[in-house]
Amino acid sequence: MFTNQEKKELEKINLKSRQVINSVYLKNGGITASTSDGRYPYVYPRDTVMILMALDHMGDHKRVKKTLDFLMSRQRETGEWAQRYDKKGNIASYRPPQVDCNGLVLHMLRLYYEATEDKKFIEKHRDAVKLGTEFIKEHYLPEEKLIFSLNSIHEWPPMEAGFDIWVNITCYVGVRGSYKIAQSLGQEDVAESWRDLARDIWIGISKKLIIKNRFIKLSDHRQITDADVSELAPYITRCIGVKETVMRNTINYIEKNLWDDELGGIRRYMEKHGEPGRNNGGYGPYSMYTGWMAQYYLDAGEEEKAKKYINWFLKYHRGYLIPEHVSTKKSFKKWMMQAKKTGRYYHVGRKQEAQRAMKSEEYKKDLIYWVTPLTWAHAEYLKLYHMLEEKQLI
Known about the structure:
Layout: H1 4-24, H2 45-57, H3 61-73, H4 99-116, H5 119-124, H6 126-138, E1 140-141, E2 146-147, H7 157-160, E3 163-164, H8 165-184, H9 188-208, E4 210-211, E5 214-215, E6 218-219, E7 223-224, H10 233-236, H11 245-258, E8 266-267, E9 285-286, H12 287-299, H13 303-315, E10 325-328, H14 329-342, H15 350-358, H16 361-364, E11 367-370, H17 375-390
Antiparallel strand pairs: 1-2, 3-6, 4-5, 6-7, 8-9, 10-11
C-alpha cells in the first residue's frame, strides 16, 4: 500500500505529532489548540475532546484523565463548558454557548470510564455530570425532540443557528453517556430520565436531520442540506455503524461535494456558506476532516480509498507540522479583500495569522498554510497512524 519512502515519511509525521501534543500539553492538564505563537493559544473544549479521543484510542489514559479533570473543574455554575479558556483555566470566550461542548465532554467521560473502569473518578465528578446534562436539557425543545443552538462546530451562527446535526449528535451521545454513568453509580432516577431524553433526541434526529437517507446539516425555519463535515458526527461519535446505508450515503455526498479538485483533501462546507469574509485564510481543505475521511475508509475496510486521503498529509506539511487548512494564494486574497470590507480581518488574530502566512515559504509557491501546527490536526493524524499500525499497513 505504501512505498518504503512513504512509510518513512508517515513515521516522521507521527513522531512530530507526538512532539506537538507534548509541547502544548499544560501542567494543569489543559491542551492548547495551537502553539503559543499560533492563532489559538487557548484551551477549546471541542478541540480538546477530539484530541482526547485520539489519546484514548492509543491507550494514553493517564493524560486523558488529567485533562478531563481540568475540564470538569472549569465548568460554569450553569453547567456550561465555555467556548474556550486561557492557559490558567479562566474563561476566554467570545462566542455564545457551545452546547456541543457539553455533549463532547460528557461523551469523553463515558469513553474514559469504559476504557478504565475508574469508578472513583466518575464518582468525583457526578455533580458536574448532572449539571452538564441539565444544561443540554435547557436547550432541548420537546415539541421538536431536538437541541436548539446558536452555533456549532464552525462557530458561525448565520449558518448554524437552529437544529444542527453536530450539536444534536454530540448532545445525544453526551446524554447517553450521562445515562450510562448514572447507571454505574446506581442513580436510577436520573438514569431513566436521561435515557428517555437521549432516546427522544435520536427520534428527532431520525425524523428531521435525515433526508433522502443521509444526514443533513441543519433543520429549522429553513433546511441546509448541502454537504458539510458536521454531517460526519454520527461516525466520529460511533453512534452508527460505518456500513449503515445512511452513513455510507452521507460519506459519498460529502466526498462528491467537498473534495478539493485542485489541492485534494476535504473542505469543511460549501464555499457560499463562508462568504463574505468567513472563509478564514481562503477556501480549501482542512486537515482534521481529511483525517476523518481516511479513518472512515480504514474502518470500512477500504484501504485504497483511505490512501487517497493519507497522501494529502504526505503532501501538505511544513517540516512535518500539519496546518489547520490549506488554500491557494488566489483564494486567500479573495478572502482577505472580503474580510477587510466586513471588518472581520482585524479581529481575533486573523490579521496576524495572515501576515505569518504571507511570510512563509509556501506563499512563494502560491499556497497558504493556515495555523501551523494545529494540535487537533496532529491528534487526528496520530489516531490515523495508529489505525494503520493496527491493520499492519505500515
